[in-house]
Write a structure and sequence with these properties.
Number of helices: 5
Strand content: under 5%
Radius of gyration: 29 Å
Helix content: 25-40%
Low-confidence stretches: none
């Protein structure tokens, strides 16, 4: 393995006008992508890698009781996956639409962002239908916004008041 230290011939002399700070012999993370026999941490690496005595090379497939969305790049669902928020309602339809496109397609991510916004609206409507009035300023973090960014909080409140005033004026015209 060649030595990557900087030699004295390549550094400016002490009496020169442009004295640079001393260079490190190697940058942080050096050697992480070297072949295993040349990596600095090889003597410390575990062989076998971890968790000795495993009885499987891949976990057994988790059973799905809800619809799980899968990327078009992968042949099937992963062995273990989350089912806490299954796709439902309009946001679920939007998510299903998004997963028709590849993950490198901008439409995929824009439709997922739109589905997130729609899901928030569905949650508000769901709260109102169950008789709960959501505390929107608290859920949006207005106390923290006021504490850490008062100008931004005033700006948001001003926009909200302006939008409500505009809605009021438009309804009053009718």
């Amino acid at each position: 393995m060649p030595d990557d230290t900087v030699t004295a011939a390549s550094t400016p002399s002490e009496g020169s006008a442009s004295a640079a700070p001393p260079l490190r012999p190697r940058p942080p993370g050096w050697g992480a992508d070297l072949p295993p026999q040349n990596r600095p941490a090889v003597p410390k690496e575990r062989q076998p890698a971890r968790l000795p005595g495993l009885h499987w090379t891949q976990p057994e497939q988790q059973q799905s009781h809800v619809h799980v969305l899968c990327s078009v790049e992968r042949p099937g669902i992963t062995p273990v996956f989350g089912t806490t928020v299954p796709p439902r309602g309009i946001s679920g339809l939007l998510r299903g639409l998004a997963f028709r496109w590849s993950e490198n397609d901008l439409r995929h991510w824009l439709v997922l962002l739109a589905a997130d916004r729609v899901h928030v609206g569905e949650g508000l409507v769901d709260d109102l239908l169950r008789g709960r009035v959501p505390n929107i300023p608290a859920e949006m973090g207005m106390r923290a916004e006021w504490q850490h960014n008062p100008r931004g909080a005033v700006h948001k409140v001003g926009l909200a008041v302006g939008a409500l005033a505009l809605l009021y004026l438009l309804r009053r015209r009718r």
